[in-house]
Design brief:
The two termini are about 15 Å apart. The protein has about 750 residues and is α+β, with helices and mostly antiparallel strands. β32 and β33 form a beta hairpin. The longest helix is centred in the C-terminal third of the chain and has 23 residues. It has 14 helices and 36 strands. The chain is globular and about 75 Å long. Bound molecules: alpha-D-galactopyranose (GLA). The site of alpha-D-galactopyranose has 11 residues, from loops. Alpha-D-galactopyranose (GLA) binds next to loops.
Length: about 750
Amino acid sequence: MRSRVVAVSLLLAAAITCAAQSSIREDAAHHQWILNAGESTYVIGFNDQAMLQSLYWGPKLADGAMLPEARMKPERASFDPPIATTPLEYPAWGAGLFSEPALKVDSPNGDRTLILKFDSAHLDAQQLELVLKDVAQPLAVHLFYRVYPQGVIARWSRVENVGKQPFRVEQAMSAVWNLPQDTGYSLSWLTGQWGGEWQLHTSPLETGAQLLESRRGSTSHQANPWFAIGRTSQTTETAGPVWFGELGWSGSWRMMVESTSLHNVRVSAGYNPYDYSYTLGPGQSLETPEFYAGYTAGGHGEASRILHRFQLAEILPGKPDPRPRPIIYNSWEATEFDVTEAGQMALADKAAKLGVERFVVDDGWFGQRANDKAGLGDWYVNQQKFPHGLKPLIDHVNALGMDFGLWVEPEMVNPDSDLYRRHPDWAMQFPGRQHTEQRNQLVLNLARPDVVAFVFQFLDKLLTDNNIAFLKWDYNRNWSEPGWATAPGSSPTAPSADAEKQIYVQYMNNLYDILQRLRAKHPKVEIESCSGGGGRVDLGILRYTDEVWTSDNTDALDRLGIQFGYTHAYSPETMVAWVTDVPNFLDRRVIPLQFRFVVAMQGALGIGANLNKWTPEEMESARQLTAFYKTVRTTVQHGKLYRLQSPLNSEVSQVECVAQDGSQAVLLAYLHSQHFGLAYPTVPLQGLDSRAMYRIHALDNSKYSGETTVQGSVLMGAGVELNLAGDYDSTALEFERLP
Ligand code: GLA
């Protein structure tokens, strides 16, 4: 079993990179660029007025296919001028554009409009740069396109001041994606709250605009920068067109989905223009984050699988073949702030017996951190809790065969800390105004170079002095009073709101820079992005972090819905899921151990329970469940995910994962509560080889135990019969494809 799983992982890189092709072709005669990514094509062209238009986004066009030349739409009425109805590629506000602009700029002479015309193109293999220039002002806009073989196109822009006076950018989107002009679309999006992230919504896209955003300084629990648009009459989980995308930015962001009264459908995303501006001095430029998007004819399931493959191959720090996530033990729910050397060693002894591979000490190990009222910012080891430093514990954990991880929250400070007493000006603030505390803490202004130096140095020292393999990087509040009195161009005596607003961009770029430098200097260290659970998950932070803490909600029933929503946008590899104690701390729900495990097996399995309370029987079943997970982990984390039955509004749900090379499949099945004694429905599998024979290994004693062998066509046609009954029943089945 073990050697087979290793083989799966070795094959993954090849499968991921060879899955499909990508290319960019220039058709100079027709002023068009044809971008192929996976099974989709995107075409851009400029018209006789040198305006850049989106010409096509949909199923892959045959080689040599030609589209009609770009042309402005005729004026429909004096109220609908061509500029407002033509699907422009990067519409700037000016000349009667009434839909959402990608760019809005104040010019030095007071002119607030722009008309961007095509200037030049630079094409290199997988990347295209189109340069637009304003007809009146010295302003250039560079549009970038990168195609990926998994079926994703990245777009971003750079606004450049080529004049001698400063411009003020008021709104800068990364890109605008135009869908075929039509009605009958439905939009899916994700919202949530602390303890309830990743709630999936789908509703018809009506005329008007739907705004998804964060004004909080970070990605947020409340909305995630992801969208998927299908056709109401055609699109399901398994079939039909889906246009989908996600923005790679961890600061305040905005995504607007518009369906105009003339049925032009557009999705724009980029910096949130709320409380935002960015001043560009002569020669300066502003780059927007990447906005990734794709098209598939294979329904919402295939849209997710494209994103999952893309994230593994192109985004995550371990790309193109990230190593599967180790099984974590984290002591937070067991001990909260009450961490001690002896207590952690005792938990480590037990965790090792379960097959855990990484032991993580959470909050409470540093400064005067008895609770959440003090200590953030004082990153020295607490002498009372760890009299000999962290070394004895780390050595103990390593001797047990596990690596060691540690919680940090580098961007925050408690007012009750030595750091704050020394540097009160390091917290974000407006002069003369009271700070607003949340969880008794303030946000450090990471836009400041001295704060950056402090954060990098303490983390670098922590990682240099200790054998730390992993950081859980937390971020437990949102912004308030986002002032930056020392911003270039501003000062306490002559404050400039314009200069200070650059904090929205500079903070995040500095965060990425710190993460990137730390990883370069400590290449073996892995990082988890956490923000009170899943408050900072996006393709910006995932370039530097290997995984995320999906939610502080560890109740297995709630988790079914949370994880269902999560996988629409992000890969199971990144989705950390712990088995914790019952009654659950959040809702007092009591769920059997196996159900809790089989739910956590959908992602990167971890354990967050107080193992001191587990009976020998529970320890033994946890050991067996963990051992089973290890045999299917690569398939779960790197395979193709099929959401067979949604847990939303259903007592019954299942997910299935199929290894990229088809050699293994896993079925995870749940019954929340049985009614009327009815039998569990038969489960038809997907994505198998219909002619191949599969040997079934069941987690527990079901009718498939032993050496049952079934053909793929039978598993997909007739389906799998499961004997789930009662409340909170669950099972996991492994399907091994025979040669
Ligand atoms: C946040 C995290 C938790 C835990 C606590 C520690 O809420 O999401 O997992 O680390 O902080 O204070």
